[in-house]
Amino acid sequence: MKPSKAVITAAGPGQQQVPLQTLIDRDGEPCSALAVQLSELAGAGVEAVAVVIGREMDESLYRSAAGESGLNLSFIPQPAGRRGFGHAILAASDFVGEESFLLMVGDHIYVSDDPARSCAAQLSELAAEEDCLISAVQATHESQLRQFGAIGGRPAAGRAGCYEVTTVREKPTPTLAEQELMVAGQRVAHYLCFFGLHVLTPELMAELRRQSERLGKDEPLGLSPALDASVQRGKYLAAQLQGKRFNLEQRYGLLKAQVAIGLSGGHRDELLTEIVELLAALRP
Questions:
Q1: Is 150:168 a contact under the CB 8 Å cutoff?
Q2: CA separation for the pair 264, 50 (Å, rounded)
Q3: CB of 165 closer than 8 Å to CB of 134
Q4: Please, which residues have CB within 8 angstroms of residue 131's CB and are 6 or more apart in sequence?
Q5: Is the distance from CB of 99 to CB of 3 less than 8 angstroms?
Q6: For residue 275, what are the contacts with CB-CB under 8 A and spacing of at least 6?
Q7: Hey, what CATH class is 5-131+194-221+230-282 in?
Q8: In the 8-state DSSP scheme, what is residue 97?
Q9: Distance between CA 156 and CA 154 in Å, rounded?
Q10: Is it the case that residue 140 has pLDDT exceeding 80?
Q11: Model confidence, pTM
């Protein structure tokens, strides 16, 4: 069964304003990054979405940015004592209950290579077929490892682009990645790093709670350690989707995402012509 609920985390430092930024969608209309994300989730069959925001943020700003999504939308302030990504996910515990759900990070935009299926839809369909914890991954050069969690594993039999996860490490060094995260079939100096989309299970949420209880009061709670512990508790897959992620917090991340969205839409030829003209004008 496809997940009917999703959680977007947007409470981290530097992340809170990202969903409010303006983009031009595939139809040439201005909208917020949050509206783009919600549209993707709606296309994946999601019916209800919770956005975890900073306690100091004005919920009305997010509601305005969301537009008319057609989704059952709620906003959850992250509890006091903000303690990392895992803590933000746990803030949505009551919302997700005992269901598996899609998790989307609030500072990423996704552009699918398949016009008929968004990246979220691809992951949701796979999760429904496999009925397990699953993370989307993207081959990433070792120079960017400091920005992402990464997995080690082996190709899953009979399913191209899927991997049985054996190890998860958060922002590993290239040396550690070479020792623990090599995956057959990847290019030299490339590793499978998180895409920013996961389907998380009730068992994973239980593991997050266990780890939260063991940590000291001010220690951050990450998602990667809980995912790594889940390797021993049941089937955990990673999947390369037909699409690309764009981190809006990176330098020129918003620009790269905007160009990719534009090139995937109906004004592709117009945009390509203007880009070529711009590049020609910049030649020395």
A1: yes
A2: 27
A3: no
A4: none
A5: yes
A6: 259
A7: alpha beta
A8: T
A9: 6
A10: yes
A11: 0.93
